[in-house]
Amino acid sequence: MSEGRKLRAGLIGLGAMGRNHARVLSNLDGVELVGVVDPAGDVTGTLRAPVVPEVSDLIALGVDYAVVACPTALHEKVGLELAANGVCALIEKPLAQSVEAATKLVEAFETAGLVAGVGHIERYNPALQSLRTRLEAGELGEVFQVVTRRQGPFPHRIADVGVVMDLATHDIDLTAWVTGREYTSVSAHTVSRSGRLHEDMVAVVGQLSDGTMVNHLVNWLSPLKERSTVVTGDKGCFVADTLTADLTFYANAAIDTEWEALRAFRGVAEGDMVRFAIPKREPLLVEHERFRDAVEGKDSDIVTLRQGLRTVDVAGAVLRSATERATVAIPPAARS
């Protein structure tokens, strides 16, 4: 890209998430939003960029990259069309609705030598970024368990996938990312209480490659909105609230006791609590900045399509486990 020229970006999908992408892209340094694809047109009347009905119309406008925020079931078709036309892509999570579709996308973009990423936005949450840095630095010692809770009211925008592919993929990706470990097995139960085609509640017990135990509770049936990640280890536990981007550390106390009965009980005691002051930039903006930099050829930390494929693979194992009522082993990810 010539120095001084703005990257030409397109957006596909103007749903709730698509409108957030449009807002960020419209004000992103070094980027010009040149077109948006949505069959319904500009329903808000607020966009400065033209809205066209087909992906081919967007490609004809000449774009360096596109953000794919249409329904998950369309990711494969749209992504393959972009790859075939030499357009880089940031694809909303999950990468696709099946391992087969996700694999096709990985192969298409890798073969074309194009920059492509997945919008796993929790990786850009300040609380989780701080948590990952602290785990890498060994502040928790050995990690024993990761527990996530993600619940809230039903998002009416979702019709093509259930709670596992839509919401649990957040927790699967962030858990593997903050710990730097892969899933090796999952055991899950799902229920459908709302009369929809797909599951709306899931409980998962899993294991990571180093033996860390994982629990995910996810539903979209609760009026209480909760986004919690708790990591427990040798030295205490971290609690990350990704709604408020707060990170709190609860330390194990070192208390000497002369009472033999207590000394023999090698448990933990409540120690100091620390809430960390973290600069709180909007995760979606950070995600876009990182992807822009990657398209420009700079070193940038984006979620690769292979990482996105791995998350879809684990989510597929969760659904399989629930159907088969059995623990499902997950083989190591294939390396490119």
UniProtKB/TrEMBL annotation:
Pfam hit, one: GFO_IDH_MocA_C3
One term of GO molecular function: nucleotide binding
Domain Gfo/Idh/MocA-like oxidoreductase N-terminal, chain residue ranges per copy: 8-120
Domain GFO/IDH/MocA-like oxidoreductase intervals: 129-238
Highest taxon listed in the record's lineage: Bacteria
Matching PANTHER family: BILIVERDIN REDUCTASE A (PTHR43377)
Protein name: Predicted dehydrogenase
Organism ancestry: Bacteria, Bacillati, Actinomycetota, Actinomycetes, Micromonosporales
